[in-house]
Amino acid sequence: KMNQKIKPLATKIISLRSELKVSKDLANAASQEVDEMFKKDMGIEHAKKETEIVKQTKPKTKELKQNPPSDLDSKKAFRKIALKTHPDKLIGLDDESELKRKTELYQKAQKAMDDQDLLILADISIDLGIKPPEITNNHIKKTIDEINSIKKEINHIESTYVWKWLFCLDKQQKEQLLKKMFEIMQRKYETENPRP
Predict the structure, then answer these.
(1) Which of 48, 121, 123, 125 can pair with 132 through a Cys bridge, CB separation 3.0 to 4.6 Å?
(2) CA pair distance 156, 20, nearest whole angstrom
(3) What is the mean pLDDT of each run of 10 residues along the chain (196 residues)?
(4) Closest among 180, 171, 192 to 53, alpha carbons compared
C-alpha cells in the first residue's frame, strides 16, 4: 500500500524542486536587472551587487532533516539500481530508448544517493522492477513537509514586487512597480549610507 504513495510523491517533489530552482533563477536575474537600473538612475557606481527585494520577507523554511534515512538504506537501494543502470552494465544494449532511460535513471539515482533521498531511490527501484527500500510513514511525512515548504517558498517569490514587475504586461503598471521598488531601494540605500 505504501508503494502506491511513492510514485505521486516522488513526481511532485521532483517537479516542485525544479520549479523552485527556475523561479529563484528568474527572480535573481530580474533583481540584478532592477539593481542595474537603480544604480544608473541614482548615479551610484559601487552599490551592493544584489538587491534584497526577492529576499525581503523570505519565509523561514525549517530544516527537514528529521529522521533522515540511514546511509545504509540509501547505499543498499543505490547498489541494486546501479546493477541495472550503471554505464558499464549497459554496454552492448542496442535499444537506444532503453539505454537513454537507464542512463537517466542512473543519474537520477546518483543525485538521490548524494541527497540521501530514499523516496526517490524507491521510486527508481519501482520503475526498474526492483524491490524498493522500505519507506516509512516518517519518510512520507518528511516529503510532504518538503512539498509544503517549497510551495510556500514559490508563493513567496511570486508575491514579490520584482516577480510581478518581471511578468507585468501593462506598461504603466510595470513602471509603477519599478517606482515602488526604487523607493524601497532608495530608503535602504540611505539607511546604509547616511549622509555625514
Answers:
(1) 125
(2) 11
(3) 86 95 96 92 63 47 47 90 92 90 95 92 95 91 95 96 96 95 90 82
(4) 180
Amino acid making up residue 172:
Q
Cell of 59: 519565509
Q: What is the pLDDT of residue 45?
A: 63
Please tell me the pTM assigned to this model: 0.77
Q: Is 179 exposed, middle or buried (0-12, 13-18, 19+ CB in 10 A)?
A: exposed
Q: Which three cell numbers stand for residue 1?
A: 500500500
102, 85 Cβ separation under 8 angstroms: yes
Contact 24, 155 (CB under 8 A): no
Residue where the block lists cell 536587472:
33
| Sign of the CA dihedral running 123, 124, 129, 134 | negative
CA distance 99 to 101: 6
